Amino acid sequence: MNLLTLLLICVPTSAFFNSPITSNHAVRGGVMQLNAAAANTSNRRNLFANAAVAASAILSFSQPSLAASESADLVDVYFGVGCFWHIQHEFVEAERKLLSRGDKELTSRTGYAGGTATDKEGRVCYHNLQGVADYGKLGHGEVVGMRIPKDKIGAFAKEYFDLFTEKGERVDPLDRGGEYRSLLGLPGGINNDYYKEVEAAAVAKCMKLELGKGNDPDTIGTKKVYVYDTTKFPFYQAEIYHQFHNDFQSPPYGKKYNSLANQAFEEGRLSITGCPDRI
């Protein structure tokens, strides 16, 4: 079922796929503030949220197949450092460069990981006025998850550490809190067969790896990256409106990039999360 057919009756396409940055990331550190513009659009957002709930009754909540190949050499990993919008774009480019993937083969998705809990329905959600499964309160950080060949873990780790500044900081230091900590997830965590390659990439950038225990604090000013075992700390896909979004750090990525969200949904690489839309 086409995502636009399902939701266009409730909200303009531009508001869903390429809405202004202030409407999505205006709230940081769990503090909610509504301005007059938000109040004027609350009815529209409620309609959209109701449509998403209805859609979830039609569509499966199960995770989509992230790659056409079922090869045992493909593994699920995730990386996070600050806001996930910018990080997703960078890993989309890494998939194209390192794996020669086209639009239909991209697996990078924004999401949450590193916490020890979900709500009773298994959800992890962005900050919202309803207080539903708030990822910050559940101890999760913003990440980008992807499915890659296991022998490329080292190459993707190098791409990840190249995202830090020369001082070992994230590019959006004004975002503070555990939600924006630096973290990565591998099958088996520090016991992964390719962990030494991750260590080498970290050392090359004078970064420190530390075993993540879950619900860990911010890493700002520490040059520290938490390492999680994905079997114990799985990835939770973020809401669709957070996928292939423009960010604070760069000029707009363009409508072709933004439209990848709809394409991924139609092809089953993105799913409805059951979380409230926007705030």
Give an overview of the whole structure:
α6 crosses α7 and α7 packs parallel to α8. It contains 10 helices and 7 strands. It has a 7-stranded mixed β-sheet with strand order 5-6-4-1-3-2-7, covered by helices on one side. By secondary structure, the chain is of the alpha/beta class.
What is this entry, summarized?
The protein has 279 residues and is of the alpha/beta class.
**Helix content percent band:** 25-40%
* Tally of alpha and pi helices: 10
Rg over alpha carbons:
18 Å
Structural classification = alpha/beta
Taken in chain order, the helices and strands follow as: HHHHHEHEEHEHEEEHH
Q: Strand order of the main beta sheet, please?
A: 5-6-4-1-3-2-7
Largest sheet: 7 strands, mixed
Total beta strand runs = 7
Mean pLDDT: 81
Q: Runs with pLDDT <50, length 5+? A: 4-70
Strand fraction equals 5-15%
Report the span from N to C terminus.
26 Å
Oligomer: single chain
- Give the overall form: globular
Descriptive tags:
single chain; 279 residues; alpha/beta; seven-stranded mixed beta sheet; 10 helices; 7 strands; globular
Furnish the topology, listing elements before pairings.
Blueprint: H1 3-7, H2 13-17, H3 21-25, H4 36-40, H5 42-58, E1 74-80, H6 84-99, E2 109-113, E3 141-149, H7 153-161, E4 183-186, H8 195-204, E5 208-211, E6 224-229, E7 236-237, H9 255-258, H10 260-266
Parallel strand pairs: 4-6, 5-6
Antiparallel strand pairs: 1-3, 1-4, 2-3, 2-7
Helix pairs in contact: 6-7, 7-8
